[in-house]
Amino acid sequence: MKKVITTTLMMCSMAASALTPAPAAKPVDQVFINANIHVGNGEVLENAQFAISDGKISRAGYYRMALDGSEIDLKGQHIYPGFILASTNLGLTEVDSVKATIDATETGQLNPNVRALIAYNTDSERIPTMRFNGILLAQTTPSGGLVSGTSSVVQLDAWNWEDAVVKADDGLHINWPAEWSKRFDFSTFTMQLKKDDKYTEKTDQIKALLADARSTGHDNNVKLNAVKPVFSGQKKVFIHTNNPKSIIEAISHIKSMGIDDPVLVTGQAAGSVIEFLQEQQISVIINGTHALPQLSDDSIDERYSLPARLLQAGIQTALTYPGSMSSRNLAFAAGSTVAYGLSTEQALQMITGTAAQILGIDDQYGTLEVGKSATFFISQGDALDMRGNVVEQAYIDGRPVELHTRQQELYERYKEKYDQ
Amino acid sequence: MNTKLKLTAWAVLACSQFAQAAQVPTETVNGNIDQRTPLMALTHATIHVNPDKTLEQATVLIQGDRIVGISEDNQVPDDAQVINYRGLHIYPGFIHLDASTGLPEPDKKPPFSWGGKETINSTKPGAYNNNEAIKASYDAAEHFNTDAKANQKLREAGFTVALSHRKDGIMRGTSVLTHLSDGAPELSIIKSQVAQHYSFDKGSSKQDYPISLMGAAALIRQTWLDADWYARQDVMVDLDLAAINQQQQLPKFITVGNWQQNLLADKIATEFATQFMVRTQGDSYQNLTAVKATGQALIVPLKFPKAPEIHDQLDAWNIDYTDLKKWELAPHNPALLEQQEITFALVPDEGPKALGGFLKDLRTAHEKGLSQRAALAALTETPAQLLGAKDLGAVAEGYLANLVITDGPLLSKGTQIAETWVAGQNHTINGRPDLLSGMYELAMKDHSHQFELKREKGKYKLSPVAEDDPYSYQLTTAGQFAKLTVKSDEKEVKLLGLIKDHAINATDGSGWVISKTSDLDADKQTDPTKDQPTQPVIPSPFTAYGMASIDPSDSVLIQNATVWTNEEQGILQNTDVLVIDGKINKLGQNLQAAHDIKVIDGSELHLTTGIIDEHAHIALLSVNDIAVNSSMVRMEDVVNPHDINIYRNLSGGVTAAQLLHGSANPIGGQSALIKLKWGASHPEDLLIDDAKGFIKFALGENVKRSRSQDSIRYPLTRMGVEQVYRDAFTQARAYEQEWQAFNNLSSRAQKRTTPPRKDLAMEATLEVLNQQRFVSCHSYVQSEINMLMHVAEDFDFRVNTFTHILEGYKVADKMKAHGVGGSTFADWWAYKWEVNYAIPYNAALMNNEGVVTAINSDSAEMSRRLNQEAAKAIKYGGLSETEAWKLVTLNPAKLLHLDDRMGSIAVGKDADLVLWSDHPLSIYAKAEKTLVDGVLYFDREQQADLESMIATEKQRLIDLSKASPGQKAPFKSMPPKTYECESITGYHEFDHMFYTGAQQ
């Protein structure tokens, strides 16, 4: 069986060269046996059978069926749902320091109508590095301003953005300001927490945008038209803020507008408002698991233990990894939480099943259940650990995905050079 | 103290002999001479002769600007003008050692420009020093003019003389000592060129260098060396260097920005066999041990932050324990200095408000334990001694008649300054009270009234003694007349009387009299030092995790662990490791240890040698300077043992690190190699003994300032970068030859010859050439890596390490041949153009090619999980686990030339050890215990207790702050800085602007 995979890899690699790899055209039908299936909902099916057909999962579990030799034996290996990278600038940013390569932030404060999807660059060199570590889906998301724009969920192996789309225009992203924010004081050359005198003005702008969009009329206003779907549930509201009071104020306001299920994208601040989040039943996406605690007196493990504390309070929690150059470490951010209170499967859920639920793509993605999209990968070992995360093959909607990319090609070129 | 400070005492003759309306002797008088020097007798006063001696009911005799006698029995010469000072206190006039009164305002600091066009040379015209921050030739006396307004404010706080210097620049020139009288400057100046003044702050200088603390330190060193050379050369004139040479005998004062700079000032002074007196920021309490050890005399501002404003529990989310603790402890600072027997003078803090609140702050310090004796000494006797002034600081014969007259004990609440006498001239402040505060009786024919009389802000406040007294009382005065209004619901009586000897007598012959019966009841005010106020706990290091208790014993037996030796024997199961005196003593099974040796059970745990971070910027106060060749700056100068990231790194199993200069320059500063000894009070305690010297080099986008559109600094291309090196090394060789030639001269000839100028940058560069200092070079792309190896080979030395080196994989064979190591990131890329071809297989490829390879962090965050970063080399490139583990332990030890004592678990090596909860390369592993030199500095077992202790203590401070009366400070906090290679400020987003040139 190992042979089968290797052959596939080699075929693909011939086509690879230095270009981003060509997406495979068609879904394949395949049966895998003796796999450890990490379903993505907390369950693990050991030595189980897994089959895909027409881009869907046709079997996942234990079946009594005659084998015909075409099955791939995955003894000792693992199958995982494709990891999901929420709220990312993937496809919108290529080289952080080169402005010409960045399409993440539009000018102005209120840009609900700008759409990440159409700027999502399927040829970004960053994308294949994600796949290589098991990330197969992403929510490509604008940033900046008070209302950054509209995100879309994409799959990470596409010819163009039309092919990539999994859920178009899924979310409206609001950056709720903080009344107190850290600003640089030039006279003392120190960072100080200062009151934002325009806080109310800023929040009023957000509030007015929502209110005006909800009221009738304004059909010829593209900004308001882009906001309207949040009231029908077609588009989710994602609130980005990392300040306890802003969290409370933003969520309270958004809910008062009749939007029941806003998603909070935040960091350490979530830990200060756990009771509120619990009571309001808010879904949370946590970034910065690999970040320093905010204050010198915070627990040294503050960021590692936050996901476990949220989950223990019954809060639906997903993880993400900001700044797409390092986002390929998403699995390791999840892994890092395990020593601080989560089980491996709970940690896994935060980047698979739960992430899919929060993004509203769980009917097809996030878990390995029969009938869902065959978007998964095979790993030699534990995919949350650096030592085990060796992705043998990945599939998106049943199509085998090219893993061998420029970074692997450069590796092999120089390895060969030195081996001679 | 006197021997230590070696002050030159100066004569008192310069002082004016004139008292009233003093005239300048050389002045032309338009009219008649009106010169008077009456003999004044201030009688029956409480005289505080000096901090140790008080005379009750005594007299001071004053003539001209001098005290001409003290009479304990109030006998005065017949010709004296007698004024009764009964009930008043006379103190020596206060001395202000940190003023700038009468001096022009310095130029404003140039607005910080993020990444704009550089200013490489001094913009100051004239034959002055090439660095604009050196203003040694500035003579404050030349610019002094009497500033009556400022004098008035100072006198209101009791100050009578001021030592003023212009607070601008690193070498600020000399100060002037002046009377705070309002006479002509010719008479106000007591002495010019009193002392030299320094700081680490370049002030208004528009020149870029130095932008860092270690740069300022290097500039001081170089300038002093230049002054030595200057004295022997005749090719140029530099008025600042000339001034430094002229001022050699003067005492030196330095203004520091924090206690760490106290230590830096001490370090530099020791190197040059001199001593600074140090104007602090009132923060010595944060590290008393180290500050005391400097032996420095301190000039200490009363600088007490207001209680932090915390609106509610959610606001506390933003408030750091350290800020709360500073608020709690700052008022204790003077008392703590007294306890430690540190010599100190007190001064008001900068800013107009500080002076107005000075007496109040002084009383606060007193309430927190500063004794009356010490308070008085710090304002009078000590500053006089520090100045070497023989006629200041006491009320004694022959001394200047500088006096502070108060209507009660100085430190009692409500006491006011009545008069401030400066050089025999009386300046009224609140005025002498005609009536003293106390309990009074109005005796009338048939009845009497009792009331309490208090003087507040020049007015009298009367309140009845008896609670059921139906009357209210009001007293106003006009000259010697007093008008008392006695009022009840039914009637109102107005009495007019004449004040004499603190009593009021009727003017209408009706015989009523108001007289004092006793002192105020409130004068029960006891000396608070008697019932010692409780001293809050001072965490050390001064941060929440400074409360961790660390057992200093450095012998321990670790039993039954899985031991990763990094030696030939590989991984040993169920093995004991015995540590004696900080060294690994034995490995084996069933080891026995003396009964007093601590035993740690290592079953189920993995024991490894500590992680060594080849590229770190933790525990530093500053990271980058900007000179193209910054090799004269030393990171050792700016090591901060109180950085919380030391503790956080211990929690990730890191035990040692190279603290590197940043990457703003082709030739950067000298590294500091440290061990992470949490709790050390002095930076020196962190430095690794006998470590070799290292230096940072940098190539590529940062040094050519690619992200700054307006940069003019050479080099702007990689081509220029090469030439910077070739030039520097060529010059360094020439410099060496020049010195060799000079050293080869006979001692006679040497005396006749100007020696070469000692250049600290050339010295360090030369050390590189001579393989006495090893290069760790920030680098990314193959062309530049190749280039530097060629340059090094041409100059006959080897590059030690390429750090970051993300394209090392492309030239690993060449690196191997050159003999350089590679210290890289596990998987960083795409953050800038030059890392576009970075691949995560880099470490494995270099390692497999035989290059000594390490994985570093360059980040206080990532360094906590370097074990995970090392494990990525298994995923990317398939290194074996033992090889991967060496990437963060033995290999960095080799790169730092420390592998003879660190990097593996072997007998005789340093016991830098980590016990892991799991396989150390696993994402699930936690460092359970971290030992450095055998001492257990981090113990996760204690973590829960420690965190709950911190939470309790923080809540106590929050409650205290909420309950504290008075004004609250605006919500403000200082989050800890974190440095990376590119840091200027330590705040990431702003540093980013520096490099991009973006404006806020």
Automatic annotation (TrEMBL), chain A:
Signal sequence segment: 1-18
Keyword Signal (UniProt): yes
PANTHER family (UniProt xref): ALPHA-D-RIBOSE 1-METHYLPHOSPHONATE 5-TRIPHOSPHATE DIPHOSPHATASE
A Pfam family: Amidohydro_1
Keywords from the named record: Signal
UniProt keyword Zinc-finger present: no
Domain called Amidohydrolase-related: residue spans: 337-399
This protein's name: Amidohydrolase family protein
InterPro entries documented for this protein: Amidohydro-rel, Metal-dep_hydrolase_composite, Metal_Hydrolase, Metallo-dep_Hydrolase
Organism from which the protein derives: Marinicella sediminis
From TrEMBL, chain B:
Superkingdom classification of source: Bacteria
Name of protein: Amidohydrolase family protein
Gene3D superfamilies reported in the protein's UniProt record: Metal-dependent hydrolases
Taxonomic placement: Bacteria, Pseudomonadati, Pseudomonadota, Gammaproteobacteria, Lysobacterales
Domain Amidohydrolase-related: residue ranges: 845-929
InterPro entries: Amidohydro-rel, Metal-dep_hydrolase_composite, Metal_Hydrolase, Metallo-dep_Hydrolase
Residues of the signal peptide: 1-21
Keyword Cytoplasm: no
Organism encoding this protein: Marinicella sediminis
PANTHER family linked: ALPHA-D-RIBOSE 1-METHYLPHOSPHONATE 5-TRIPHOSPHATE DIPHOSPHATASE
SUPFAM superfamilies, per the entry: Composite domain of metallo-dependent hydrolases, Metallo-dependent hydrolases
Keywords carried by this UniProt record: Signal
Chain segments annotated as transmembrane: none
